[in-house]
Amino acid sequence: MPALSAPVLQLDDESQLRHINAKLAAMEPHQVLVWASTTFAGLYQETAFGPSGNVITDMLSSKNISVPVIFIDTLHHFDETLDLARRSQERYKFDLHTFKPEGCTTREDFITRHGDNLWKHDDIVYDYSVKVEPARRAYEQLAARAVITGRRRSQKGDRAALPIVEIESTGLVKINPLATWSFHQVWAYLRANNVPYNALLDQGYKSVGDYHSTRPVKEGEDERAGRWAGSEKTECGLHKDYFAMRAAFQARNSDMKEQAVSQLTAAQAA
User: DSSP character for 212?
Assistant: First the structure.
C-alpha cells in the first residue's frame, strides 16, 4: 500500500492531491478505507443509509475498522430510512451521532419554526436548515477532520468527475471509496453480503432522500432521477461549497426581512 500521509493533503498543493488520488485509484474500496483509517484522526462516516453508505459500513466492519457515523436527520426522512438507521446500528454497533435542524427535535418543531412545505417555497433556506447547518455543527462539535461518503461518479450530475479524495474550502477532507463503482456493483455487494438496505429499494427507489422530493425510478432512468424530479437540482447542498451555501442563505434571510419590513410599513400607512 502506498505510503500516503495526512500532512501531504494541503489545500494549496493540487499536484500532491492529484498524486494521492492517482495512487488510491489503483486500490480496491476496502483498501482505501484501511488507508483512511490509518491516515486521519477525527475520521467519520457520513451517511443517510443509502445503498453505497451501507456497503461502506459493511466493508469497515469486515475489516474490524471502527469509524463513528454522522447521520443528518432532516426530520423529513421516510420511516423506512429511520428504521434502516436503527437496524444498521444494531447490527454493526457503530457510534451513531445524529444531528437535526437547529432548535428542532420533531417535524412538528420544524414546521412551527419554518412553516409548512418550506422545501416548496424556498429550497435554499430548506437545504441550509436541514442539511448544511446541521452538518457543519456536527463537524465542529465532533472535531471531524475527514468524512467518508458513499458518492459515486455513476450517479452523474455534480458527481460525474468525483475524485476519491477531495478537500473542501473549509478544510474538511472527504473520502469517496466507491467513486468508481456502479449501482449494479453496489446492489450486487448488498445482496452477496446480506447487508441491510432500505425497504424502498424493493419498491423501485434507487436513491432515497426526503419523502417529499423522492420518487421511484422508472425503467431506463438514471439512478438519481427520482430525486427532485422535474427540476435541474442534483444536490441538496451538503456536498456543495459551504461558504457559498451560507452566503446564499444569509442573502435570502436578508431579503425576507426587508420584505417583511416593507409589508409592515405599507400596512401601517394604509
Answer: G
pLDDT at 225: 77
pTM, entire model:
0.87
Q: Give Cα separations from 257 to 71, 120, 250, 260 (angstroms).
A: 32, 19, 11, 5
Residue pair 227/212 in contact (Cβ under 8 Å)? The answer is no
Residue 142 has pLDDT above 60, yes or no: yes
Tens-digit pLDDT profile for residues 54-83: 999 999 999 999 999 999 999 999 999 999
Q: Are strands 165-167 and 173-175 parallel, antiparallel or unpaired?
A: antiparallel
Q: Exactly one of 147, 164, 217, 236 is catalytic; which is it?
A: 236
236 belongs to the catalytic site: yes
How far is Cα 230 from Cα 220, in angstroms, rounded to an integer? 16
How does DSSP assign 23-37, residue by residue?
HHTTS-HHHHHHHHH
